[in-house]
Design goal:
The structure is a homodimer. By secondary structure, chain A is α/β, with parallel strands linked by helices. Chain A is built from nine helices and twelve strands. At the A-B interface, strand 9 and helix 7 of A face strand 9 and helix 7 of B.
């Protein structure tokens, strides 16, 4: 067979996933992959090891097909225009890595690379819960809080490719200090690890003994301290989303990431703070993302479908 | 003479300005108007009175020329797509007024209408301190705090045409209550009348005895309470701008409006809070707007120069 296919990669830092999809299948709202491979990065790996892995996994998926293009979601800052990874917070050797060029050389096909939040936003917009939207904000609430925009039906990256940093918008200048140096950032209050840390401190136990999921489980079971921490996280996220809605007036906001599995109390808290923060005439739909962990893979495919010549 | 001209209108609520500019002069960075007229709305006026005024002033400017198009900056919410004014906060009778249609009928030329913040942003981008930018945020800090975006070299209005409401983003959830129902909005802390109200209260004098300009004058003269109020306003605006920069990563932020004449101390305060709020890798230039009160008029002309077919 020599059917043309797209390849998509999602590299988060600890694991690497590769998928393939027939080009002819893209238009029909595909429900699954033609092929899929997954591997985990060893703790002592580096960028070259990961790139070799990408090429090996992609080549296996491409056997018998023609690769028409490759999209990559990278868990770290990326310069989209030059196709360069700026760095990985997890794996050494990624600094200023020309990943686009490396993969284009290996596969002799066009490659596009962007950071995971932008790519996930695009995937949800093209294939998931964001379909039909002109203007979309996608936010992942997980170990961090990151966002990506689709504006005017196109990825919006901003001047330096850094748009979407909702996690480090300030919602409470008297709040606890964030690693970024400020106080009361959305990420400091709403991310899983920070909520776990805050609850552990309240309970007088080591931070390592608590997870974001446990905060939600305890809160939903009626634990007063856990409720306070979870509610504050939901409030902070909702205020941050409301500020974003007042600034940009998106049609839809989608939430993904592990913390969004915290249950109805958490969702209600986010929705309430969002509604209280947006001006009465500013309306926005808040919805769960459709794809969960697969959003960056769908977005990697969608990256190749954007007409980058049109602006 | 039958030279083609553009007409521009700026209707703020209390005064109406009309200008004309030769179409042939637009490309050469024009430094002034071909013709200009100004009138003040009487306290008992209404929308029909104002529209008659527009038609009369525009007709006078158009005598001897051919009107190629008309741009209108309106001081209140506008539905750009339908060319309808939603309401005026100052003058009765503007509710759901099809102003675009009324002016097109009167002048037999295409008309575009948008709210003053969006139009001023576009004017600064096309003719003023925003020239050459891909992504721009313009904020006017005056009796209120409003903003407008130019993204990808085009006006960005959002889903409901409401993008840019930086004045009602929250920067201090424990701050004083705002008329909008929230606490610690940028406008509540940084606008002229609210700063005046807060200083008057601290000094135990009637709010009517204090203006935003006096707050700045007193602060720059060393008055401790005035310094506290002015610094807080500058801080709030800077945090709001920093949040916007993290979210959208614009290349440039321009500030206009009366409060921006508060002097070096105020500008330094805004710049400092902006720098502290943006992530280290997010860079943005903060500059004064070039046109002051004329920005909406330049924007009204620029409105006609946008290719609305391209998105």
């Amino acid at each position: 067979m020599t059917d043309p296919i797209w390849l998509g990669f999602d590299f988060g830092g600890t694991k690497l996933t590769a998928v393939s999809l027939r080009v002819a299948d893209v238009a029909d709202a595909p429900s699954g992959w033609l092929g899929q491979r997954r591997t985990f990065s060893p703790p002592d790996g580096d960028a070259h090891f990961d790139i070799d892995n990408m090429i090996q996994m992609g080549s296996a998926l491409a056997t018998g097909y023609v690769v028409q293009g490759i999209g990559v979601s990278f868990g770290g800052p990326v310069d989209f225009d030059s196709g360069t990874v700026l760095l990985s917070h997890h794996v050494p050797g990624w600094e200023q890595m020309p990943l686009q060029q490396r993969l284009e050389d290996a596969f002799n096909a066009p490659v596009r690379i962007d950071n995971d939040a932008n790519v996930a936003a695009l995937g949800e917009w093209r294939f998931g819960a964001g379909r039909g939207c002109d203007h979309l904000l996608y936010v992942t609430v997980s170990t961090g809080v990151g966002g990506g925009w689709v504006l005017n039906k196109r990825p919006f990256r901003g001047h330096g490719g850094l748009a979407g940093e909702i996690g480090h918008t300030v919602v409470d200048p008297n709040g606890p200090p964030c690693l970024c140096g400020k106080r009361g950032c959305v990420e400091r209050l709403a991310s899983g690890p920070y909520m776990a840390q805050d609850l552990a401190r309240r309970m007088g136990i080591p931070a390592t003994a608590m997870s974001g999921k446990q905060v939600a489980d305890l809160a939903n079971g009626g634990h007063a301290d856990a409720i306070a921490v979870l509610d504050r996280g939901a409030w902070a996220l909702g205020v941050g989303l409301g500020n974003a809605a007042n600034l940009i007036n998106p049609e839809r906001i989608l939430l993904g990431g592990g913390v969004t599995k915290s249950g109805e109390r958490w969702w209600n808290g986010v929705q309430q703070a969002l509604a209280q923060t947006t001006l009465p005439e500013v309306t926005v739909d808040l919805l769960p993302a459709q794809f969960g962990d697969d959003a960056p893979l769908w977005g990697a495919i969608a990256l190749m479908l954007v007409d980058e010549t049109a602006v």
